[in-house]
Amino acid sequence: MTNDELFKLMADLEARGEADRPADEVFAKIVLIESAIERRFPGQMLRPYKQWKGRPHQFVTR
């Protein structure tokens, strides 16, 4: 999984987590993705993800 794919997944989960009644499964997945990001970028916490969120994105739809 590329960094962009990992960050996109995190962004999607965050959006689902902000719903009126998010499922516990969403929060569990967020924790897993946070852990994956932290393993990929040791000592940076979620800084790379937050920087990624601040950039303009152009996703290609298939």
List keywords for this structure.
globular, mainly alpha
Low-confidence stretches: none
Category from helices, strands and their pairing: mainly alpha
Sketch the topology as an H/E string, one letter per element: HHH
- How does the major sheet shape up? none
Question: Radius of gyration, Cα only, in angstroms?
Answer: 12 Å
Return the average pLDDT rounded to an integer. 88
Q: Fraction of residues in helices?
A: 55-70%
Please report the distance between the alpha carbons of the first and last residues: 18 Å
Q: What's the tally of helices?
A: 3
The fraction of residues assigned to DSSP E strands is: under 5%
Short description:
By secondary structure, the chain is mostly helical. It has helices at 3-17, 24-40, 47-54.
